[in-house]
Amino acid sequence: MVTTNWKEHLWLEVENRGHEIIRLAEQFQNTPETGFSEFQTSRMLADYFKHIPNLDVKWGIAVTGVAASLYTGRPGPRIAVTADLDGLENGHLCGHHMQISTMAATAMILANCGIMHWAGGEVRFLACPAEEYEESEYRKKLLLERRIMDWSGKLDFLQRGLFDDIDAVISVHLADDLPERRVIVGFQTEGFWLLRLICEYQGSRFRAWCQIHQHLQEWIRLVQADGQRRVVLSEKGGDGAIEIVLYIFETSYDEVIQERLIQQLRNSIRQVFFRFHIEKENGYAPFSQDSVLTDLASQQITRLLGKDAVMIRPVIQGATDLGNVARRIPTIQPLIGGTRGHTHSQSFHVVDKWMAYIFPVKLMIGMIIDILFGKYLLTNRKTVK
Ligand SMILES: [Zn+2]
Protein backbone atom coordinates (compact mmCIF):
# COMPACT_ATOMS: atom_id res chain seq x y z
CA MET A 1 0.00 0.00 0.00
CA VAL A 2 1.40 3.44 -0.81
CA THR A 3 1.63 6.22 1.78
CA THR A 4 -1.51 8.03 0.61
CA ASN A 5 -3.57 4.87 0.87
CA TRP A 6 -2.30 4.11 4.32
CA LYS A 7 -3.15 7.61 5.42
CA GLU A 8 -6.69 7.59 4.00
CA HIS A 9 -7.27 4.15 5.49
CA LEU A 10 -6.08 5.13 8.95
CA TRP A 11 -7.80 8.52 8.95
CA LEU A 12 -11.05 6.68 8.26
CA GLU A 13 -10.27 4.32 11.11
CA VAL A 14 -9.82 7.31 13.44
CA GLU A 15 -13.26 8.65 12.43
CA ASN A 16 -14.82 5.20 12.94
CA ARG A 17 -13.41 5.11 16.45
CA GLY A 18 -14.37 8.73 17.17
CA HIS A 19 -16.77 7.98 20.04
CA GLU A 20 -14.23 5.70 21.66
CA ILE A 21 -11.52 8.40 21.42
CA ILE A 22 -13.78 11.05 22.97
CA ARG A 23 -14.75 8.68 25.77
CA LEU A 24 -11.07 7.97 26.43
CA ALA A 25 -10.23 11.69 26.59
CA GLU A 26 -13.09 12.33 29.01
CA GLN A 27 -12.03 9.43 31.22
CA PHE A 28 -8.59 10.95 31.59
CA GLN A 29 -10.15 14.38 32.11
CA ASN A 30 -12.08 13.02 35.10
CA THR A 31 -8.95 12.03 37.01
CA PRO A 32 -6.65 15.05 37.11
CA GLU A 33 -3.61 14.43 39.31
CA THR A 34 -0.61 16.64 40.04
CA GLY A 35 3.02 16.04 39.03
CA PHE A 36 4.68 12.76 40.01
CA SER A 37 1.35 11.75 41.65
CA GLU A 38 -0.46 10.68 38.46
CA PHE A 39 -0.98 7.16 39.80
CA GLN A 40 -4.50 6.56 38.50
CA THR A 41 -3.83 8.22 35.14
CA SER A 42 -0.66 6.22 34.71
CA ARG A 43 -2.38 2.94 35.60
CA MET A 44 -5.26 3.65 33.19
CA LEU A 45 -2.84 4.35 30.36
CA ALA A 46 -0.62 1.35 31.11
CA ASP A 47 -3.71 -0.92 31.24
CA TYR A 48 -4.86 0.45 27.91
CA PHE A 49 -1.41 -0.09 26.40
CA LYS A 50 -1.23 -3.67 27.71
CA HIS A 51 -4.21 -4.64 25.56
CA ILE A 52 -2.49 -3.44 22.40
CA PRO A 53 -0.69 -6.19 20.46
CA ASN A 54 3.08 -5.92 19.84
CA LEU A 55 3.47 -2.95 22.14
CA ASP A 56 6.33 -3.22 24.62
CA VAL A 57 5.17 -1.37 27.77
CA LYS A 58 7.13 -0.17 30.81
CA TRP A 59 5.62 1.84 33.63
CA GLY A 60 6.49 3.35 36.97
CA ILE A 61 9.38 5.24 35.35
CA ALA A 62 10.14 8.36 37.43
CA VAL A 63 7.32 7.28 39.80
CA THR A 64 4.43 7.48 37.32
CA GLY A 65 5.86 7.66 33.79
CA VAL A 66 4.91 5.19 31.06
CA ALA A 67 6.97 4.23 27.99
CA ALA A 68 5.76 1.97 25.21
CA SER A 69 7.39 1.05 21.95
CA LEU A 70 6.30 -0.21 18.55
CA TYR A 71 9.63 -1.37 17.19
CA THR A 72 9.89 -3.01 13.81
CA GLY A 73 13.33 -4.52 14.42
CA ARG A 74 14.43 -2.98 11.14
CA PRO A 75 16.39 0.18 10.47
CA GLY A 76 14.40 3.34 9.89
CA PRO A 77 13.38 6.58 11.51
CA ARG A 78 12.71 6.60 15.21
CA ILE A 79 9.85 8.81 16.32
CA ALA A 80 8.88 9.69 19.88
CA VAL A 81 5.33 10.74 20.67
CA THR A 82 5.10 12.56 23.99
CA ALA A 83 2.24 13.36 26.35
CA ASP A 84 2.09 14.96 29.78
CA LEU A 85 0.35 12.98 32.50
CA ASP A 86 -0.26 15.76 34.99
CA GLY A 87 -3.20 18.02 35.61
CA LEU A 88 -3.61 20.86 38.06
CA GLU A 89 -5.14 20.55 41.52
CA ASN A 90 -8.54 21.73 40.33
CA GLY A 91 -8.75 19.98 36.97
CA HIS A 92 -7.08 19.26 33.64
CA LEU A 93 -6.85 22.99 33.03
CA CYS A 94 -3.91 22.68 30.63
CA GLY A 95 -5.69 20.02 28.58
CA HIS A 96 -3.12 17.26 29.09
CA HIS A 97 -5.93 14.68 29.11
CA MET A 98 -6.16 15.22 25.34
CA GLN A 99 -2.44 14.52 24.92
CA ILE A 100 -2.88 11.20 26.72
CA SER A 101 -5.95 10.12 24.75
CA THR A 102 -4.24 11.14 21.49
CA MET A 103 -1.20 9.05 22.38
CA ALA A 104 -3.30 6.04 23.42
CA ALA A 105 -5.48 6.14 20.29
CA THR A 106 -2.47 6.62 18.01
CA ALA A 107 -0.71 3.59 19.52
CA MET A 108 -3.84 1.45 19.29
CA ILE A 109 -4.59 2.30 15.66
CA LEU A 110 -0.97 1.98 14.46
CA ALA A 111 -0.49 -1.34 16.25
CA ASN A 112 -3.75 -2.87 15.05
CA CYS A 113 -3.56 -1.92 11.38
CA GLY A 114 -0.34 -3.81 10.67
CA ILE A 115 1.45 -0.79 9.22
CA MET A 116 4.54 -1.58 11.26
CA HIS A 117 5.04 -4.78 9.24
CA TRP A 118 5.67 -2.58 6.23
CA ALA A 119 7.76 0.11 7.83
CA GLY A 120 11.19 0.26 9.45
CA GLY A 121 12.18 2.10 12.59
CA GLU A 122 10.26 2.71 15.77
CA VAL A 123 7.41 4.68 17.24
CA ARG A 124 8.06 5.27 20.95
CA PHE A 125 5.29 6.57 23.20
CA LEU A 126 6.56 8.53 26.19
CA ALA A 127 3.95 9.57 28.75
CA CYS A 128 5.85 11.88 31.04
CA PRO A 129 4.95 12.98 34.57
CA ALA A 130 5.05 16.47 36.00
CA GLU A 131 5.22 19.01 33.18
CA GLU A 132 3.80 21.80 35.34
CA TYR A 133 6.46 23.40 37.50
CA GLU A 134 4.81 22.91 40.92
CA GLU A 135 5.06 21.12 44.29
CA SER A 136 8.69 22.02 44.82
CA GLU A 137 8.92 20.45 48.29
CA TYR A 138 7.59 17.09 47.06
CA ARG A 139 9.98 17.12 44.11
CA LYS A 140 12.96 17.93 46.32
CA LYS A 141 12.04 14.94 48.47
CA LEU A 142 11.75 12.63 45.43
CA LEU A 143 15.11 13.85 44.17
CA LEU A 144 16.73 13.21 47.55
CA GLU A 145 15.26 9.71 47.63
CA ARG A 146 16.56 9.22 44.08
CA ARG A 147 13.10 8.28 42.85
CA ILE A 148 13.36 10.92 40.14
CA MET A 149 16.47 12.09 38.31
CA ASP A 150 15.38 15.63 37.57
CA TRP A 151 12.80 18.26 38.32
CA SER A 152 10.20 17.41 35.65
CA GLY A 153 9.12 14.36 33.67
CA LYS A 154 10.88 15.14 30.41
CA LEU A 155 14.06 16.35 32.10
CA ASP A 156 14.07 13.02 33.94
CA PHE A 157 13.30 10.99 30.78
CA LEU A 158 16.15 12.80 28.96
CA GLN A 159 18.56 11.78 31.72
CA ARG A 160 17.31 8.20 31.72
CA GLY A 161 18.07 7.94 27.99
CA LEU A 162 14.46 7.44 26.92
CA PHE A 163 14.93 10.02 24.16
CA ASP A 164 18.22 8.47 22.96
CA ASP A 165 18.37 7.59 19.24
CA ILE A 166 15.14 9.48 18.55
CA ASP A 167 15.07 11.41 15.23
CA ALA A 168 11.88 13.40 15.73
CA VAL A 169 9.58 14.21 18.64
CA ILE A 170 5.89 14.79 17.96
CA SER A 171 3.46 16.14 20.51
CA VAL A 172 0.19 18.08 20.45
CA HIS A 173 -1.35 20.53 22.90
CA LEU A 174 -4.66 22.33 23.12
CA ALA A 175 -4.51 26.02 22.23
CA ASP A 176 -5.41 28.83 24.56
CA ASP A 177 -8.91 30.17 23.78
CA LEU A 178 -9.14 29.11 20.12
CA PRO A 179 -12.71 27.92 19.42
CA GLU A 180 -12.25 27.61 15.64
CA ARG A 181 -11.01 24.54 13.77
CA ARG A 182 -7.53 26.00 13.41
CA VAL A 183 -4.04 24.97 14.49
CA ILE A 184 -1.11 27.15 15.57
CA VAL A 185 2.34 26.05 14.33
CA GLY A 186 5.84 27.41 13.79
CA PHE A 187 6.04 29.42 16.98
CA GLN A 188 8.61 29.73 19.68
CA THR A 189 7.67 29.28 23.33
CA GLU A 190 9.36 31.18 26.13
CA GLY A 191 11.65 29.44 28.54
CA PHE A 192 11.94 30.43 32.16
CA TRP A 193 14.28 30.38 35.09
CA LEU A 194 13.48 31.37 38.61
CA LEU A 195 14.95 32.98 41.66
CA ARG A 196 13.88 32.34 45.24
CA LEU A 197 14.68 35.36 47.34
CA ILE A 198 14.46 34.81 51.08
CA CYS A 199 14.92 37.87 53.31
CA GLU A 200 15.11 37.66 57.07
CA TYR A 201 13.90 40.73 58.92
CA GLN A 202 13.49 42.03 62.42
CA GLY A 203 10.79 44.39 63.59
CA SER A 204 7.83 45.32 61.45
CA ARG A 205 6.87 42.84 58.76
CA PHE A 206 5.02 45.56 56.87
CA ARG A 207 8.09 47.73 56.77
CA ALA A 208 10.15 44.81 55.49
CA TRP A 209 7.60 44.15 52.72
CA CYS A 210 7.68 47.77 51.61
CA GLN A 211 11.46 47.81 51.48
CA ILE A 212 11.68 44.60 49.46
CA HIS A 213 9.04 45.72 47.03
CA GLN A 214 10.65 49.04 46.36
CA HIS A 215 13.93 47.35 45.47
CA LEU A 216 12.25 44.56 43.55
CA GLN A 217 10.27 46.95 41.40
CA GLU A 218 13.48 48.69 40.40
CA TRP A 219 15.11 45.38 39.57
CA ILE A 220 12.09 44.16 37.57
CA ARG A 221 12.15 47.38 35.53
CA LEU A 222 15.79 46.71 34.75
CA VAL A 223 15.15 43.07 33.79
CA GLN A 224 12.28 44.00 31.48
CA ALA A 225 13.98 47.11 30.03
CA ASP A 226 15.04 45.58 26.70
CA GLY A 227 11.64 43.93 26.12
CA GLN A 228 13.27 40.48 26.03
CA ARG A 229 12.01 39.26 29.39
CA ARG A 230 9.02 39.39 31.68
CA VAL A 231 8.91 38.73 35.39
CA VAL A 232 6.08 37.04 37.27
CA LEU A 233 6.29 37.21 41.02
CA SER A 234 4.78 35.09 43.78
CA GLU A 235 5.17 35.62 47.50
CA LYS A 236 4.99 33.69 50.71
CA GLY A 237 6.69 33.90 54.03
CA GLY A 238 6.51 32.94 57.66
CA ASP A 239 7.58 34.77 60.79
CA GLY A 240 10.80 36.66 60.47
CA ALA A 241 11.31 35.80 56.79
CA ILE A 242 9.73 36.77 53.53
CA GLU A 243 10.10 34.47 50.54
CA ILE A 244 9.55 35.75 47.04
CA VAL A 245 9.73 33.63 43.90
CA LEU A 246 10.60 35.51 40.72
CA TYR A 247 9.83 33.67 37.49
CA ILE A 248 11.77 35.17 34.58
CA PHE A 249 10.31 34.26 31.18
CA GLU A 250 12.40 34.84 28.07
CA THR A 251 12.94 33.49 24.56
CA SER A 252 16.71 33.44 24.89
CA TYR A 253 18.61 31.58 27.58
CA ASP A 254 21.89 33.30 28.28
CA GLU A 255 23.55 32.31 31.54
CA VAL A 256 25.98 35.24 31.44
CA ILE A 257 23.08 37.70 31.37
CA GLN A 258 21.31 35.69 34.05
CA GLU A 259 24.36 35.86 36.35
CA ARG A 260 24.61 39.60 35.83
CA LEU A 261 20.95 40.09 36.73
CA ILE A 262 21.32 37.96 39.84
CA GLN A 263 24.31 40.03 40.91
CA GLN A 264 22.31 43.22 40.41
CA LEU A 265 19.48 41.83 42.55
CA ARG A 266 21.97 40.87 45.22
CA ASN A 267 23.48 44.36 45.26
CA SER A 268 20.08 45.97 45.46
CA ILE A 269 18.75 43.81 48.31
CA ARG A 270 22.04 44.15 50.23
CA GLN A 271 21.29 47.85 50.71
CA VAL A 272 18.41 47.01 53.04
CA PHE A 273 18.79 43.45 54.29
CA PHE A 274 21.65 42.03 56.19
CA ARG A 275 20.48 38.45 56.09
CA PHE A 276 19.10 37.17 52.84
CA HIS A 277 19.82 34.55 50.25
CA ILE A 278 19.02 33.93 46.62
CA GLU A 279 18.60 30.51 45.03
CA LYS A 280 18.43 29.98 41.29
CA GLU A 281 16.53 27.20 39.52
CA ASN A 282 17.02 26.56 35.81
CA GLY A 283 13.34 26.10 34.89
CA TYR A 284 12.75 25.14 31.27
CA ALA A 285 14.60 26.09 28.09
CA PRO A 286 12.86 28.14 25.37
CA PHE A 287 11.20 25.90 22.80
CA SER A 288 11.79 26.38 19.06
CA GLN A 289 9.59 24.24 16.84
CA ASP A 290 11.50 22.38 14.15
CA SER A 291 10.90 23.86 10.69
CA VAL A 292 10.86 20.55 8.74
CA LEU A 293 8.31 19.12 11.15
CA THR A 294 6.33 22.37 10.96
CA ASP A 295 6.07 21.94 7.16
CA LEU A 296 5.03 18.36 7.65
CA ALA A 297 2.32 19.32 10.17
CA SER A 298 1.10 22.17 7.96
CA GLN A 299 0.60 19.73 5.09
CA GLN A 300 -1.60 17.42 7.16
CA ILE A 301 -3.58 20.36 8.56
CA THR A 302 -4.13 21.75 5.06
CA ARG A 303 -5.36 18.39 3.81
CA LEU A 304 -7.65 17.81 6.75
CA LEU A 305 -8.99 21.33 7.35
CA GLY A 306 -7.93 23.56 4.45
CA LYS A 307 -5.00 25.94 4.25
CA ASP A 308 -6.67 28.74 6.24
CA ALA A 309 -6.60 26.47 9.27
CA VAL A 310 -2.81 26.82 9.57
CA MET A 311 -1.94 29.72 11.87
CA ILE A 312 1.70 30.77 12.08
CA ARG A 313 2.59 32.59 15.30
CA PRO A 314 6.03 33.97 16.27
CA VAL A 315 6.06 33.71 20.07
CA ILE A 316 3.72 32.06 22.57
CA GLN A 317 3.85 32.91 26.27
CA GLY A 318 4.46 30.22 28.85
CA ALA A 319 7.10 27.52 29.05
CA THR A 320 7.32 23.75 28.77
CA ASP A 321 9.95 21.11 29.47
CA LEU A 322 9.57 20.06 25.84
CA GLY A 323 11.90 23.03 25.22
CA ASN A 324 14.74 21.04 26.76
CA VAL A 325 13.96 18.09 24.47
CA ALA A 326 13.84 20.39 21.42
CA ARG A 327 17.37 21.59 22.13
CA ARG A 328 18.59 18.07 21.33
CA ILE A 329 16.07 16.61 18.88
CA PRO A 330 13.82 18.12 16.17
CA THR A 331 10.50 18.60 17.97
CA ILE A 332 7.02 19.89 17.21
CA GLN A 333 3.94 20.60 19.29
CA PRO A 334 1.11 22.19 17.29
CA LEU A 335 -1.58 23.95 19.33
CA ILE A 336 -5.03 22.62 18.51
CA GLY A 337 -8.22 24.71 18.46
CA GLY A 338 -11.66 23.77 19.72
CA THR A 339 -11.19 25.44 23.11
CA ARG A 340 -12.45 28.42 25.07
CA GLY A 341 -10.92 30.16 28.06
CA HIS A 342 -7.31 30.49 29.08
CA THR A 343 -5.22 27.45 29.95
CA HIS A 344 -4.44 27.15 33.68
CA SER A 345 -7.68 29.00 34.49
CA GLN A 346 -10.99 27.53 35.64
CA SER A 347 -12.64 28.87 32.48
CA PHE A 348 -10.60 26.64 30.12
CA HIS A 349 -12.74 24.02 28.37
CA VAL A 350 -13.27 22.14 25.11
CA VAL A 351 -16.08 23.44 22.88
CA ASP A 352 -15.50 21.22 19.83
CA LYS A 353 -14.82 17.58 20.70
CA TRP A 354 -14.05 16.51 17.13
CA MET A 355 -11.41 19.23 16.85
CA ALA A 356 -9.91 18.79 20.32
CA TYR A 357 -9.89 15.00 20.53
CA ILE A 358 -10.30 13.34 17.12
CA PHE A 359 -8.43 15.72 14.81
CA PRO A 360 -5.12 15.50 16.80
CA VAL A 361 -5.05 11.70 16.32
CA LYS A 362 -5.40 12.20 12.55
CA LEU A 363 -2.69 14.87 12.55
CA MET A 364 -0.33 12.67 14.53
CA ILE A 365 -0.91 9.55 12.44
CA GLY A 366 -0.47 11.54 9.22
CA MET A 367 2.89 12.87 10.37
CA ILE A 368 4.07 9.47 11.60
CA ILE A 369 3.21 7.77 8.28
CA ASP A 370 5.08 10.41 6.27
CA ILE A 371 8.15 10.06 8.47
CA LEU A 372 8.07 6.24 8.62
CA PHE A 373 7.84 5.93 4.86
CA GLY A 374 10.63 8.38 4.30
CA LYS A 375 8.55 11.08 2.70
CA TYR A 376 10.22 13.39 5.16
CA LEU A 377 13.74 12.30 5.78
CA LEU A 378 15.26 14.07 8.71
CA THR A 379 18.73 13.33 7.38
CA ASN A 380 20.04 16.87 7.26
CA ARG A 381 19.55 17.09 11.03
CA LYS A 382 20.54 13.68 12.19
CA THR A 383 21.48 10.40 10.51
CA VAL A 384 18.48 8.19 10.06
CA LYS A 385 19.41 4.82 11.52
ZN1 LIG B 1 0.36 22.07 29.17
TrEMBL record:
A molecular function (GO) term: dipeptidase activity
Keyword Transmembrane helix tagged: yes
GO cellular component labels: cytoplasm
Superkingdom to which the source organism belongs: Bacteria
UniProt keyword list: Membrane, Transmembrane, Transmembrane helix
Native organism: Collibacillus ludicampi
Transmembrane segments: 354-378
GO terms for biological process, alphabetical: folic acid catabolic process
Protein name: Amidohydrolase
Signal sequence coordinates: none
